[in-house]
Write a structure and sequence with these properties.
alpha/beta, single chain, 8-stranded parallel barrel, 17 strands, Lyase, Ornithine Decarboxylase, Chain A, domain 1, TIM Barrel
Length: 384
Amino acid sequence: MPSERDIEKELWWVHKRSELLSLADQHLNAYVYDLNTVAQKAGDIQSLGAVDRTLYAVKANFNADIIRTLADAGVDFDCVSPGEVRMVRDVLSDDCESRILFTPNFAPRDEYEWALREGLRVTIDNLYPLKHWPEVFGDQEIFVRIDPDYGAGHHEHVITAGVNSKFGVSIDEIDELVTLVNSAGSRVVGIHAHSGSGILEPQNWQSVATVLAEVAGRFPDVRSLDLGGGIGVPDRRGVPGFDLATLDELLGKVKAEYPDYALWLEPGRYLVSQAGVLIAHVTQTKEKGGHCYVGVSTGLNSLIRPALYDAYHEIVNLTQLDVKATETVTVVGPICETGDRFGTERALPPSNEGDVVLIANTGAYGYVMSSRYNLRDIPEEITI
């Protein structure tokens, strides 16, 4: 079994510590993305023999350099808003409509009309559009998002299927869906699903694929099954990474059983999470009621995942990286909220004002969910 030190040696931000410390001399707070790691993750997914097409969920991180790196690796894009579509177009600056799947949710009618005029492939994820705006989808090829009737994920807020989720057409609505599609004159060419985020069991995608293949049998024009994303990312050292080889093996069995369908995958967070870190500086330290606090120069306005999802992010004192951790502390920011905590009961070396603190695995749903709450500045983005 690899030691903690062996695992640490594999981390890009350990290798590039000096570069990060130099950047921290110039920036109070910053998101830093390692493009080599993005390209490596894209290559890992692209190497799956059973997956015919990979689409990056742009909502995870819309940084232009990241989009460009993924596009160069052959990855296409899943967009959930016109703004995301425009971002991809601006970055790629070519005829990229065929590389985009537009997947809005509870969007107004004009977004669907706009997307179809622009030549985008559009996903419908409930019956309302076909019931109330059938003329919009007449003689159009569409995808339909199905709720496979169960969801999964690391927190209830990221479970995107099942009875308590707002997403997708229910299995018990398939008969009505067939009727509405035929009445509108649409052609369903793809069946889509997304179970949730942070799923570590490869069997999830095999189960989803089987459900989608059964639904696809009701629509003669279906060519693709989009299995969604949600591939889990280890949140701390020593936790095994996601087993891509097993996923490939299981999806290979699906392809053997349903050879007429191409399998698509949408790994958003998996492609970028580990490529990003948030760097900040120690501002103050404090002891109160037997608790030790280390304050840093940014807070939940920059990274809301711990407050919103109870997400765990590894935290290190980058300045004191070679110093033994002897203190148990809670790392907090300057935001006027009790929930402004990056980590509770964390082992760190003694921290001093001005030390650089690094919060790992922040390449996804970090900057894109940031705000100017308390009128605090949003960290800059830097790619290396």
